[in-house]
Amino acid sequence: MLTTANFLQYTQWSGIATLVFAALTVLAFILKWGIRFRLVGTTGFMLVLTGGLFALSIVPLSRAVIPGATKYTLVYDNGSTQAVITTSPQITPTQLEATLRQAASNLFSYGRSGTREDDKLTVRARTIIHPEPGVSVPVYLGEAKRSLVSHQNSPVTVEIYTDKFAQLPKPNA
Membrane-spanning regions, if any (predicted)? Predict the structure, then answer.
């Protein structure tokens, strides 16, 4: 996986290439080359590319990895305070707790609209069961809440709906 150090190195090389294209563009205008306006576009593109690589070099790209968490899929996110993930029907309560903690950590963003201390990101976990052919029923298994104000110092509270696990199909032995 690419790290911020890799992107910093790519930024340096892209910056050097941008300077080379800028020098070629100036030279093309002095010598009145026919490709001088194409070089202006190329230099502009290189500036944008260098800026993007620089941004990736200062923002960490890592995701939280919580031991015991299982794979989940984000099915709803209003971009503010609510998100819903879906999990496998064979998940256990301990796996669900770890998965909810991981999802709450991964879905945290400073761009979410939470300005007051009581604003919380709520991540709900659901699964789909099929009690009979042609019928699908969503079952909410739990939820995690965390503050939208602080990433480092905000505890994640997890509530598991243990009564809902009785509705899940039993794994085949």
Answer: 12-31, 43-61
* Per-residue pLDDT tens over the stretch 91-115: 899 999 999 999 988 888 777 765 5
Q: Is residue 67 part of a domain?
A: no
pLDDT in tens, 36-59: 999 999 999 999 999 999 988 887
Same domain? For 112 and 48 the reply is no
Domain that holds residue 21: 4-58
DSSP for 81-135, written as a single string: SEEEEE--TT--HHHHHHHHHHHHHHH--TTS---STT-EEEEEEEEEEEEETTE
Dist CA 158 CA 142 (whole Å)? 7
Would you tell me how many other CB atoms lie within 10 Å of the CB of residue 62? 9
